[in-house]
Amino acid sequence: MKTTIINLLPWREERRKKRQQEFILLLLLAAGLGAAIWFVWSSAVDGQIAHQGQRNQIIEGQIRELNQQIAEIDELEKTRNDLVERMKVIQELQGNRPSVVYVFDQLVRTLPEGVFYTEVTRQGSQFTLKGTADSHSHVSRLMRNLDASDWFKNATLVHIAAEREGERGNFVLRVSQSTPKAEEDAK
């Protein structure tokens, strides 16, 4: 019998090389597939980020427009409030116009002889009357006349002084304006 020897080494070596080549091929294929998946995912995320950035820009533009409109509305409200205040002042002045004439008329009518006004000032409904008088009794008569008037109330003497005996004295009175009954009925 003849023996034949078969050498299996080269066959196993070829098989190992073939498997190694297949493994490397599969490894490269998996790496390529991973890179493709990563590229697709990265592109999708970048696209979503870009889309959200555009939406944010649109929203920021609308916010700027709304802030401008709010500023315009605030300015219009301020202008409106200023106009309303001016209208109130004008209406108040128009309403008080006739009463000023009556007040000055009453100031003259209540003034006794020997008394002169040097200054009349008004703050709200309070009048401050400064003047000179021949005597203290003339000032008291002025105060009684003012209290008896329909247009004034609460006459109060703030200051009275004469520099020398027998000379005219200076005085300061405060009196409040009252609304006469006839004018209250007219309102």
From TrEMBL:
Matching InterPro entries: Extracell_DNA_Util/SecSys_Comp (IPR052534), PilN (IPR007813)
Transmembrane parts of this sequence: 23-41
Keywords, ordered alphabetically: Coiled coil, Membrane, Transmembrane, Transmembrane helix
Coiled coil: 56-93
Superkingdom, taxonomy of origin: Bacteria
Name of this chain's protein: PilN domain-containing protein
Organism, as annotated: Isoalcanivorax beigongshangi
Organism placement in taxonomy: Bacteria, Pseudomonadati, Pseudomonadota, Gammaproteobacteria, Oceanospirillales
